[in-house]
Amino acid sequence: MAEAAGVHPATASRALNPALPGRIGAETTRRVQEAARRLGYTPDPLARGLRTRRSGVVGVVVPDLTNPVIPPIVRGIEEALWAAGRGCLLADTDNDPEREAVHVAQLVARRCEALIVATAARTSPTVAALAAGDVPTVLVTRGVDAVDLPLVAADDAAGVTAAVEHLAGLGHRRIVHLTGPTDLSTTVRRAAAFRAAMARLGLGDDPLVLHGAAFTIRAGARVARELLDRDAGATAILAGNDLIALGCLETLAAAGLRCPADVSIAGHNDMPFVDRLTPPLTTVAIRGHEIGTAAARLVLALLGGDPEAQRHVLLPTELVVRGSTAPPPTG
Amino acid sequence: MAEAAGVHPATASRALNPALPGRIGAETTRRVQEAARRLGYTPDPLARGLRTRRSGVVGVVVPDLTNPVIPPIVRGIEEALWAAGRGCLLADTDNDPEREAVHVAQLVARRCEALIVATAARTSPTVAALAAGDVPTVLVTRGVDAVDLPLVAADDAAGVTAAVEHLAGLGHRRIVHLTGPTDLSTTVRRAAAFRAAMARLGLGDDPLVLHGAAFTIRAGARVARELLDRDAGATAILAGNDLIALGCLETLAAAGLRCPADVSIAGHNDMPFVDRLTPPLTTVAIRGHEIGTAAARLVLALLGGDPEAQRHVLLPTELVVRGSTAPPPTG
DNA sequence: TTGAAAGCGCTAACAA
DNA sequence: TTGTTAGCGCTTTCAA
Fold first, then answer.
1. Which of B9, B115, B228, B315 has its CA 20 to 30 A from that of B236?
2. Which residues on neighbouring strands pair with residue B241, listed in sequence order?
3. Do A90 and B90 touch (CB under 8 A)?
4. Tell me, what's the pLDDT at A159?
5. Which residue is nearest to nucleotide D12 (CA to C1')?
6. Which residues sit close to strand C, CB under 7 Å?
7. Mean pLDDT of all residues in B136-143
């Protein structure tokens, strides 16, 4: 204990914690800090937490770390959290609602001061329950329907709109949207933006939207197969994300269709390496790292009781035009 | 408190913790558990940790979560840790030794029961110091020279050997190794295996090995440029990892050289999507998820005081032959 | 400005 | 098998 080396029992606590009730003598402060440094003293966060009811840890729940969209977000969160002296307890649900429930329960049981949840399905009872609990929670990318939890996400709608305008500008008129399951708010947001843009451009009030089982390559390949079977005559596909776009590419190639000569494809997220495919993928870039830092900052603001905190944050997206989109085949 | 509802003060503790000194009556146990459930009681891990000196949390230090090699490893760690009732405190150093030092210090200060470190440079003083401390530490992929810490890694040497044999089998005789900085043990391991295989196959006792500044696309592109400038007449490149291979591909293409017609390239790690490049990359696949679970299990064994624990674990690798390797140009 | 005393919620000894 | 007592290391009243 630092007291032995320094002088007093719990005055040390005050000396080490600036701006607590009761100012401390300059000389005393110096002595305490000197002793602390000399003994390599670190306050025990467990004991402190036991007393202050704050663990200094934020729980972070992600759907799947091996989905390339996630790591930049987690890095952003992690950096901002550590910078604020908070730790980052990571939990991966593998997109399984049951594991989400288990992990959230464990994180709460571990007395996380707050939660950042990137796994929320629109109807997740686990996440909805969080809104009623007393653990501040911030959602990332995916929102829930039932309750109004703070949310940080990319402005997908703007990106999707830009993508549709880009395709229309190239001359495409039969554009379809191949996307993920409807229980994710991202799907709904992007699909709504797609429909709105199509209608506004006079390309149909009820354009074709096909939903795959997941935001994966495999699901993308299957839903593209479904599109081909319908023989809808689409000349351009707007994919719900890049993985679905990759699946589409696969199915198209297998069917002998060339991209972009026969069909244009645009994705969403600008995952790493999609610029190195043949053809390089046109896609809507999101700023994962910024989403992460914004989410962490929002959590910190909530913990700090900041009433100014913006509860809903939309970060800009940008359409990146590459080789997978081109004018439709003539005739 | 559960006692009020049940009956006794600290008997509850025993009832909820099976296999503690002093058996508990069946009826009592039932009553306590019933009460705990009814009141939604969760033991406070902070208070428990304060008493038992165990936080239930393991610190995980990674070099860069956005490097595609890392996420599968972290997932493996995270799953095994949670399954054992431990949390996973994540810290990302962005490959910066200073941040490594800071993060390790913070994780230790937070009373992590153990550390899993995937950032170790061969000479890292931070990691070497850990060996002398009292926090059990397991290294992942990267080892340090000075001390003999437990290490879990892929059997790179076997993979590199297989890759060299593959290239030699295709008829290549002038094979070069383009890899990362020498301060990482992975570099050294792979380079040594490369030299040994080359010598054994009679392809030179001192084959060309060029070291880039990092395991990145950019460094790979630059080191490939260096190779071209030397005009070494290489017909095959064994890259230190897939990112370096991507950089090579880039430089080669810019120089008007075709892969694999003019130069074959093989990578290492089998990162996601390298099978979708043109040409698809021949590479040594490692099992990231298994590396993670093995590391976590080793940590748990160490924490459990298991004397049987294998301190050095090498996991199998597998050469995946794709389109980026072919026989050398004739003549 | 500082000391003294109490207690956060739990578990480990010891006693019954 | 259970109750009692004590204390983990810190912060926080309250008094000096």
1. B315
2. none
3. yes
4. 98
5. A51
6. A 7-11, 14, 22-25, 27-29, 47, 50-51; B 1, 9-10, 13, 16-17, 20-22, 41-44, 47-48, 50-52
7. 98
**End-to-end Cα separation, chain A, in angstroms:** 84
Under DSSP, is residue A328 helix (H, G, I), strand (E, B) or coil? coil
Half-sphere exposure of B178 (CA within 13 A, CB side): 35
3-state secondary structure chain B: CHHHHCCCCCHHHHHHCCCCCCCCCHHHHHHHHHHHHHCCCCCCHHHHHHHHCCCCEEEEEECCCCCCCHHHHHHHHHHHHHHCCCEEEEEECCCCHHHHHHHHHHHHHCCCCEEEECCCCCCCHHHHHHHHCCCCEEEECCCCCCCCCCEEEECHHHHHHHHHHHHHHHCCCCEEEEECCCCCHHHHHHHHHHHHHHHHCCCCCCCCEEECCCCCHHHHHHHHHHHHHHCCCCCEEEECCHHHHHHHHHHHHHCCCCCCCCCEEEEEECCCCHHHCCCCCEEEECCHHHHHHHHHHHHHHHHCCCCCCCCEEEECCEEECCCCCCCCCCC
* A83-120 per-position pLDDT tens digit: 999 999 999 999 999 999 999 999 999 999 999 999 99
Chain A residues with CB within 8 Å of chain B CB: 42, 44-47, 49-50, 55-57, 60, 64-66, 68, 70-72, 74-75, 78-79, 82, 87-92, 103, 106-111, 246, 272-274, 276-278
Rg (CA), chain A: 25
Check: CB of residue A172 under 8 Å from CB of residue A142. no
Q: Once rounded to an integer, what is the mean pLDDT over residues A157-173? A: 98
Q: Per the structure block, which two tokens stand in for A4?
A: 């032995």
A52 C-beta less than 7 Å away from strand D: yes
Cross-chain Cβ contact B55/A46 below 8 Å: yes
Which tens digit of pLDDT belongs to each residue from B92-111? 999 999 999 999 999 999 99
Global model pTM greater than 0.85:
yes
**At A96, is the secondary structure helix, strand, or coil?**
coil
Which of A37, A92, A269 should be substituted to probe chain B, the one whose Cβ sees the most B Cβ atoms within 10 Å? A92
Question: How many Å apart are CA A61 and CA A321, to the nearest integer?
Answer: 32
A133-167 per-residue burial string, b: 16 or more CB within 10 A, e: under 16: eebbbbbbbbbbeeeebbbbbbbbbbbbbbbbebb
pLDDT of residue A197 exceeding 80, the answer is: yes
